[in-house]
Design brief:
By secondary structure, this protein is α/β, with parallel strands linked by helices. The protein has helices spanning 6-11, 18-31, 55-74, 103-106, 128-143, 152-158, 162-170, 172-179, 185-190, 242-253, 268-277, 309-315, 318-326, 340-353, 359-364, 366-370, 384-394, 399-406, 419-436, 447-461, 469-481, 503-514, 522-529, 531-542, 545-550; strands at 41-47, 81-87, 148-151, 194-196, 211-213, 218-222, 228-232, 238-240, 257-261, 284-288, 291-292, 333-334, 487-488, 500-501. Helix 8 (172-179) packs antiparallel against helix 11 (268-277).
Amino acid sequence: MTTISADIAAALSDAKAWPFEEARKLIKRLDRLPDGKEKTVLFETGYGPSGLPHIGTFGEVARTSMVRHAFELLTEGKRKTRLICFSDDMDGMRKIPDNVPDKAFLEPHLHKPLTAVPDPFGGNFASFGDHNNAMLRRFLDTFGFQYEFASATEYYKSGKFDAMLLRAAERYDAIMAVMLPTLGAERQATYSPFLPISPQTGRVLYVPMKNVDAKAGTVTFNDEDGTETTLPVTGGNVKLQWKPDFGMRWAALGVDFEMFGKDHQTNAVIYDKICEILGGVAPHHFVYELFLDEQGQKISKSKGNGVTMDQWLDYATPESLALYMFQKPREAKRLYFKMIPQKVDEYLQFLAAFPKQDAKQKLENPVYHIHSGHPPAAELPISFVLLLNLVSASNAHDKSVLWGFIRRIAPGATPQEHPLLDHLVGYAIRYYDDFVKPQKKFREADAVERAALQALSDALGNAPAGANAQDLMTIIYDIGRAVPRYQDLNAKGATPEKPGVSNAWFNAIYQVLLGEEKGPRFGSFVELYGIENTRKLIADALAGKLAAAAA
C-alpha cells in the first residue's frame, strides 16, 4: 500500500466522501463473516458485451476502484484485495445492436453465445464478444485501473463454475421456488434456470427442462428440432439465466462488493437468495442511478445513444470523465457532449484547490479519489472554455499557434513542461470543430452595442502595458457601467454613482464577438488573446465581417 501522510491518516476516521462510507459498510459486513478478517476481499464489476462498451461500464470500474482504495486506506493496507471485471460473454445475442456496421451479417448468428458470433468489425477478433471485451480492456488499461479480466465463456468451459453448477442441479427446486413467483403464468410454465447450448445449432435455448438429474449432473430437454437431448451441466454445455447467474457467480467467486444500476435494484433480493441457496454470502451492494442522454432517456448499449468512452476521450481527459462518475452517484445524471467542457474545467478547479486544502478537505476532494490519493500538480489556470473561445476568435487549428497565445500569460511555457495543458489544447480544437463551430450564431450589433464596443476598443488601446486579466476586467466593467442599458442598481454594493453591470453587457460581447450565448471572463480572454487581436476582433464585428462569414 502507498504510504500516506500523518495528517491524512488522522483525518480518515471522519472522512465523509461516499467511497469511504461504502468502504465502512463493507468492513462491517466482513466483520460478520467467520473468515472475514483473513480472506482476500473481492470487488467485482459486470459487463454485458452485447454492444460496444459504454460509459456506464467505465463508471462501475472507476467507482468500484474508488471504494477499493478507500477500503485499503481504512484497513491500513493490511487486507489483500482483488478487482475482477467479469464479462457475461456467454449470453446469447438476443437482438442485433443498432451500432454495428452490417446488421445482416449477424442475423444468422442470433441467439448464439456472444463468443460464438463472428466479429462484425473487420474480423480482427475471434468473435463479437472478444471484440467488445478487447474494447473494454483497452480503455481500462489506458486509464490505469488495477483489475483482472474474467470471461464467462472461459469460466464455464474451463470448469471453474462446475462445482457450483452441480450444486444448482442439486438445489434446483429451491432455485425454482425463488424464481417462479417473480414470473407470469405463461413464463412459469416454461422457465428453467438452466439454458442449454444446442448441440445442433449452437444457440442458447430458452426451453423447459424435462428432467434435472442432480446425481448425474445432467439436464434433459427437447432441442430445437424436437429431439430429446441430455447434456451435463458442466463444461460449458449449459449456462444459467441471468438472475440465477448473478447469484451463482457471487457464491462461486466469494464476491464481497458489487455495484449495479438502479434497474437491477428490484432483482437484488433474488441475486442474494440464489447466492445463499448455493452456499454463498451475498456481497455488499452499491446501487447507482442510471445515466441519461440529452433527452432524458436511459443510455443503451444497443441503441448507441449518449456518449461512448471513446467519444468522450476524443474531446476531454479521462480524469474529467472520472470526475463525472465521482459526483453524486445516487442521482440520475444526463450525459451528453455539451457538458464535457464543464467537467474539464471542474476537474482543473478541484486539482488547483487540492494543494491548498487541509487533510479533511483533501479527502473530500474528487481528485483524491480519481488519482488514488496522489493527484498531480495543477499546471496553468487556463480554463477549457477559455481555450475554446481562443480557438474560435483566432480560427487557429494548429496547436503551436495556440501555444503562442498561451505564452502571453506564461512566458517560456512549453508542451513538454505542461503536458496536460497541451492535451487540452488539442481537445479544444476538436471540440470546437465538432460542437461549437456548427452552432455559432454571430449577430450584428445594434446602435447602443456599437457605441459600447467601440468605447471598449478605445479603452483597451489606452490600457497600460502589461495589464493583467483583472486590470482588463476593470476596463470592461467601467465601459458597461457607463451605458444606461447595462447598469444594474440591484447589484451588490451598487450605488447611483457607481452602478453594477448587468449580464446583458457580457451577453452582447459574447454574441457579437464570439457567436456564443456564454463565455469565459472576458478579461482573461483579452489577456490571452492579446489587446491588439481583441481590438481587431471588435473592428471586424462592427464592420459586419463576423456575421457575414458565418451566414
